[in-house]
Amino acid sequence: MTAQKGSAFLLKIGDGAVPPAYETVAGLRTTQMAINGDSVVVTHKDSGGWRELLSGAGTRSVSVSAGGIFLGSDAEARVQAHALAGTIDDYELSFEDGARLRGRFLVQRLDYSGDFNGERNYTIQLESSGAVAPA
Fold first, then answer.
1. Rounded to whole angstroms, what are the CA distances from 83 to 18, 35, 96?
2. What are the backbone angles phi and psi of residue 12, rounded to the nearest 5°?
């Protein structure tokens, strides 16, 4: 397996149709994804003092953080609208090797910044709502 380019990790938002078509949100400079899982402990007196976990149980989630430059696209306007309304929409994460993950996400945080004579930068934090699965 060869190393993959970080620039090829794209965040896309659905267009609201069923099934959704996806559009790239913005020029991403930094991206990070975390797959989280909480466990359910089923340790009992016959466990011999060792912790035992129940496979397939617990809460799973995906968190996405990204930052970059907004370019004024319709996709960016949809992200901002969802952030202001606190609504959930379909998103896709795509990778250089062609792998994709799709799911519904809430815009947990959307920050803007910029310098005089510079581009407007943003950072975004998404939290999954429901299953996230390969596409």
1. 21, 22, 27
2. -125, 150
Q: Is the bond leading into 20 cis (omega within 30 degrees of zero)?
A: no
Question: Can you tell me the distance from the alpha carbon of 35 to that of 43, in angstroms, rounded to the nearest whole number?
Answer: 25
The model's pTM is: 0.84
Higher pLDDT, 88 or 5: 88
The whole-angstrom separation of Cα 128 and Cα 63 is 6
Look at the alpha carbons of 13, 123, 101, 4 in this order and tell me if their dihedral is positive or negative: positive
CATH fold group of domain 6-134: Factor Xa Inhibitor (4.10.410)
Going through 1-135 in order, the beta strands assigned E by DSSP cover 10-14, 22-24, 27-37, 60-69, 88-94, 100-114, 120-128, 133-134
Question: Comparing 61 with 94, which gets the higher pLDDT?
Answer: 61
- Using an 8 Å Cβ cutoff, are 89 and 104 in contact? yes
Runs of H (alpha helix) within the chain: 74-85
Could you give the CA distance from residue 13 to residue 10 in angstroms, rounded to a whole number?
A: 10
